[in-house]
Amino acid sequence: MTNTSQPGPPAASAVDLAKVYGFGDTQVIALGGVSVEFAAGQFTAIMGPSGSGKSTLMHCMAALDSPTSGKVYIGEVELSSLKDKELTRIRRDRLGFIFQAFNLVPTLNAKENITLPLDIAGQDIDKEWFDTVVRTVGLADRLKHKPNELSGGQQQRVACARALVSRPDIIFADEPTGNLDSRSGAEILAFLRNSVRELGQTIVMVTHDPGAAAYADRVLFLGDGQIVDEMFDPSAEKVLERMKNFDPIGQVS
Ligand SMILES: Nc1ncnc2c1ncn2[C@@H]1O[C@H](COP(=O)(O)OP(=O)(O)OP(=O)(O)O)[C@@H](O)[C@H]1O
User: What is the mean pLDDT of residues 137-159?
Assistant: First the structure.
């Protein structure tokens, strides 16, 4: 079913985005001219076989890597026009990140990890919002715990709260459930889903897992550095089926 109820400007977009690694015989076209919009308030999953360009697309969109050509916009701001300092500020103030490996600071407790980006930026903590985020991720009774006193799922919830607490325009999640057992993974995905529905968050998530993609509003399928398909209102079955038909050898990474 096509979702036509997405008004408003995109939270992020790319126009003819290309990324080429190497030269001559060793040249790899990781992205071959991708144009895409990520609607505000929507949860998008990016899928595709290994090497199809998922991470490259996400890293270019998240200002963690620079494209060979083409343009990336966060809201109305075009990234290639920015100096390093301005890019750092965009990443800090407007983007949130969730990685497969949690990336928490081991010496800080959960609360300190959650507020770290705001503390570094010298920004005040909105207490009410902090409480809402902590309640939503179910960490209220774990705030004093250090990462090694938390389960993997709890650590990833801390990382989710850290991404949400600064109210970023968009959160980029790179295989956020890749290191979790299926139950913890489902909790994180349900939480991400809720943060879109209830808090209006915009999320872009790279995943290999059709079950994880099913939590999204929209799935983009990448193949050989191009967007080859998209699906709205996905189910795990439909996504798996699409991935099976992906290429002649049915490679599902
Ligand atoms: N630093 C690099 N130098 C050279 N080639 C690279 C580099 N990074 C990525 N590539 C190549 O670009 C292509 C796209 O890689 P990318 O990591 O974006 O794919 P992916 O879909 O995220 O793969 P995976 O699912 O395996 O993580 C691949 O062919 C990869 O080998």
Answer: 91
pTM, to two decimals: 0.89
Residue 67 has pLDDT above 90, yes or no: yes
Please give the angle made by the CA atoms of 75, 77 and 204, to the nearest 5 degrees: 40
pLDDT number for residue 1 = 43
Q: Is 207 in the pocket of ligand 1 (CB under 6 A)?
A: no
Query: What pLDDT score does 32 carry?
Result: 95
Give, for ligand 1, the residue of 27, 52, 251 to mutate: max count of ligand atoms closer than 8 Å to Cβ: 52
Domains of the chain, residue spans: 10-244
Residue with tokens 């200002």: 63
pLDDT value, residue 180: 82
Please report how the helices 127-137 and 152-165 are oriented relative to each other, as an axis angle in degrees rounded to 10: 150
Q: Pick from 14-18, 84-88, 118-122, 185-189 the range whose average pLDDT is largest.
A: 14-18
- Which residue's C-alpha comes closest to atom 18 of ligand 1? 53
* CATH, domain 10-244, list 3.90.25.10, 3.40.50.11540, 3.40.50.300, 3.40.50.10420: 3.40.50.300
For atom 27 of ligand 1, the residue with the nearest CA is: 50
Q: Which of 55, 100, 206, 222 to mutate to test the pocket of ligand 1 (most atoms within 8 A of CB)?
A: 55
Residue 136's pLDDT band, with cuts at 50, 70 and 90, is confident
